Amino acid sequence: MKETASISFAHRMEGVPRSFIREILKVAISPEVISFAGGLPNKKLFPLEELQASAVKLMSGSDRNILQYANTEGYLPLREKIAERYAHKGLQINPQNILITNGSQQGLDLLGKIFINEGDALVMEEPGYLGAIQAFSIFHPRFVTVPLTDEGIDVDCFRQAIANENPCLAYLIPNFQNPSGISYTEERRKEVARISKGKPLFLVEDDPYGDIRFQGERKNSFYHYLPEQTILLGTFSKTVVPAFRMGWIVAPDAVMDRLIVAKQAADLHTDYFTQRLVYQYLSDYDIDWHIAQICEAYGRQAGAMMQAIEHYFPKEIQYTHPEGGMFLWLTLPEGRNAMELFDLAIKENVAFVPGNPFYIDKAEVNTCRLNFSCSDEMEIEEGIRRLSGVLATLG
Amino acid sequence: MKETASISFAHRMEGVPRSFIREILKVAISPEVISFAGGLPNKKLFPLEELQASAVKLMSGSDRNILQYANTEGYLPLREKIAERYAHKGLQINPQNILITNGSQQGLDLLGKIFINEGDALVMEEPGYLGAIQAFSIFHPRFVTVPLTDEGIDVDCFRQAIANENPCLAYLIPNFQNPSGISYTEERRKEVARISKGKPLFLVEDDPYGDIRFQGERKNSFYHYLPEQTILLGTFSKTVVPAFRMGWIVAPDAVMDRLIVAKQAADLHTDYFTQRLVYQYLSDYDIDWHIAQICEAYGRQAGAMMQAIEHYFPKEIQYTHPEGGMFLWLTLPEGRNAMELFDLAIKENVAFVPGNPFYIDKAEVNTCRLNFSCSDEMEIEEGIRRLSGVLATLG
User: Fold this and answer.
1) ipTM of this predicted complex?
2) Fold of A15-46+289-394
3) What's the whole-model pTM score?
């Protein structure tokens, strides 16, 4: 297609990072490569047969409205199911405060739209979720990064950030964070809520992995401690299937009002047929039984990865010990370059994501994200063994 | 849910119109009301059985990737099918220049994101499509409205707008426009392309109804005359079903690059399962046969509406003569108020949309949108008869 000479684009697209991971995945696509680079749920665990039965049942009824335009908020019985699931975790959520979105990613776009003026401060964990960095970047916030410790976000830095920078949002993943796999301790959650209380700030709690816990006890949501200032993001991508792009936001009334206007302008509503399909599946099958299968598999795979790291890697390499989710985080000795390790590793047919895209403003980092959801235990052991060889070369 | 005291929202949400039609539809929901207010395709014509068979076939295969995350651009074979359909209309489109979106509404959001800086001029037809006004409003453009005539956009005003206002986009619906039902003549299309050629401007041609032609000859797309400056928006909402939110944008390479970044940040990709389902349906069934059924039904209904108007309405009321699509536009005598007519009409159990939301800055208008896709011929005659009684009362 020919190009016109003088296209002028909006400023907002300047500086929005392209997906680095997308580029990485192109390299990692060869079948000889053992890839810890992806961020996909394991497709072997998708409930394909159950979804097929649900689709047949749904489409055998006489309700042709399953294929019609629908309301912006989402299918009410589905929102009621989501509220029920929160109730089992001790959170009282009114279904009217739930908006169905295209994955939780769209929640980030809508929140960026309704909250962020250019230059507004926004707290991000460091390292932080790449998709959130991308979504928010479009609205040109001032990112205020707060480091993660093994117990969650660094409390002193968080307190300072709130006091000095007046952020409108703090974007946090307290359970099995992407990319680090770290979970906030109960005390850390309380402390974050305590610091935030009464400030003109919302805690945006993104929780795509919360249900995928294979070890330890469930911790409380920020919503438990500070409901009036917490916005929850959720998704069926990791518990049912990702293809559906079925997620949701929970927000207070005044925020919901704006979110609905923004959602309507963005795409009217989320795929209504798929909303009905997910509802049918949740009605006819025991999703908790299904989630238990996922936890069992990912738990074994995470265990195999940690065991192999313990066995093969030199002691100076640190790694997180995830209790759930899909990722583990390596920290190489000071001064080592993760990109260099990646280039060597790919030659030995093993891939991971160098930490770079998870930082806002760092060119050289010594950290790496390893995914364990998509490889079996033998592949994991072999991949870590290969990586240990590369680490030895790197010196 | 309790509210926090001091929520401060982004400026961009100020002045974004709420859906007026949404409010109208709440009034029109009672079963005694004959409603010409909606904008829905007729659900009796949805290919439910065919889609069920397609879903069963799709899910009986062994490809579990139909439920996995997918690429941002969309399923390539589906984009190839869309390109094929353009080829039948004489337009050579590379599938790589097609991005799958959540209905064409999302195309508007993405175009607003990548093109509109605050205060940038944007040409809109007057009356114009409400959903586009909403989507673009978020990015605070300066709307430059150009009136529609029976032959399409007013050429002299369009030429002036381009010369004086330097717009980055002109948003146009040349076929069976929403709300007016007007189609641009071939000469008017050529003229618009001629005026735009070489200017730093894209024509955004939204064509949700183009295939639903029940009378007259197909006209050429702006893309035929000015491919390098035309962006096409398309959708399966009116030809297959709306619930799927399955649309697309066709754009030149440089624009596609930005659209992909914006789409990825917005929601990663459109529901991949539904993309595969639509592809399966298009592969196994003759969509042109199906579209012919829709055209036949809507054509009969539009005919019934025009005939009833001719028979019942006073001569001073003007109306458009749509050759396709779903809408017809009434113009009351000068000085009459469409909102007043609406209030009286609803008491007589007949509803329509007063023209107001289709103008950017007009409080009182004498125009009305009537939908004919969702009522049968008897309902249409009875609805128009009731409306004629109300018109007599209005004086």
Assistant:
1) 0.96
2) Aspartate Aminotransferase, domain 1 (3.90.1150)
3) 0.96
